[in-house]
Specification:
This protein has helices at 10-18, 29-34, 36-43, 49-59, 75-86, 103-113, 126-134, 144-155, 159-176, 191-200, 209-214, 219-235; strands at 2-6, 25-26, 66-68, 92-97, 118-123, 139-143, 182-186, 204-207. 54% of the residues lie in helices and 15% in strands. The protein has an 8-stranded parallel β-barrel, surrounded by 7 helices. It contains 12 helices and 8 strands. It has one domain (2-208): Aldolase class I (TIM Barrel), CATH 3.20.20. Helix 5 runs parallel beside helix 6, helix 8 packs across helix 9 (159-176) and helix 9 crosses helix 10. Helix 6 (103-113) links the parallel strand 4 (92-97) and strand 5. With 237 residues, the protein is of the alpha/beta class. The relative contact order is 0.12. The structure holds erythose-4-phosphate.
Length: 237
């Protein structure tokens, strides 16, 4: 299972890339807004979409996929933007939003004819994952907590039920998906989500920086190291 970073924060991207713990980056409009101020501070430049994407690809090693997302008013507009942004780097993967009018499928076809890899995003069900897979997308992105929100809001599901449901969607998607399409699971809100998704199974888990930071910690690890350090002191007396 690969770990991607769900962020456009340049400081965090540099940090995790330099430690070699991530194998890809995912972004979206909401993430860009969250990191807008930090971008302007770090670069001294006003926010401009092209500049942010350029700054991200400059900070990752060649061959590391960077999924970008943008909005468009039509499929023609989307295609034009995708071609333009892809010129910034060969590592750019274009996120294509799932929709019920099949625009996404036309876009996947048009983009793959131009050798532009795609990541079908905002998937909330096994059915949608299967379709993204059938259309030949490079990645299919399942949104873990947003699936749970839907179950909670629509069926008044309790925490255990919504978790069991989302885990089963992740598991079935992982079992059913035919490679080379890879399953990405995102929309994580806490450390327990990581645990649940890892157990359910996926090709890739995309994790926000604050949760990735928490993954090093375990109380028993701290206790064990303390114990060993105090023994070391005794050993060397
Ligand atoms: C994944 O690719 C998405 O960028 C992300 O995980 C969505 O998460 P959210 O539900 O927190 O917006």
């Amino acid at each position: 299972m690969k770990i991607f970073l769900d962020s456009s924060n340049l400081y965090d991207i540099e940090r995790f890339v330099s430690m070699r713990v991530i194998q890809g980056i995912t972004t979206n409009q909401k993430i860009l807004l969250k990191d807008k101020e930090a971008f302007e501070k770090v670069t001294g430049k006003p926010f401009k979409y092209d500049d942010v994407i350029r700054a991200i690809v400059e900070r990752v090693p060649r061959g590391m996929p960077v999924s970008i997302e943008f909005s468009a008013v039509s499929t023609t507009d989307f295609l034009e933007k995708a071609i333009k942004y892809r010129e910034l780097s060969e590592d750019i993967v274009v996120k294509v939003p799932m929709d019920s009018k099949w625009d996404w499928a036309h876009l996947v076809k048009a983009l793959s004819e131009r050798d532009i890899p795609t990541n079908i995003t905002a998937l909330m069900s096994v059915e949608q994952v299967l379709l993204a897979n059938a259309a030949g997308a490079g990645y299919a992105s399942l949104f873990y907590n947003r699936m749970k929100d839907y179950e909670r809001e629509t069926f008044d599901g309790k925490e255990e039920e919504t978790t069991a449901y989302a885990n089963s969607v992740v598991r079935r998607s992982y079992d059913e998906i035919k490679r080379p399409t890879q399953l990405i699971v995102g929309s994580l809100r806490n450390l327990k989500d990581v645990w649940e998704i890892v157990y359910a199974g996926t090709d890739i888990i995309t994790i926000p920086p604050n949760i990735l930071d928490q993954m090093c910690y375990h109380p028993k690890t701290e206790e064990t190291i303390k114990e060993f350090d105090s023994i070391w002191e005794k050993l060397n007396k």
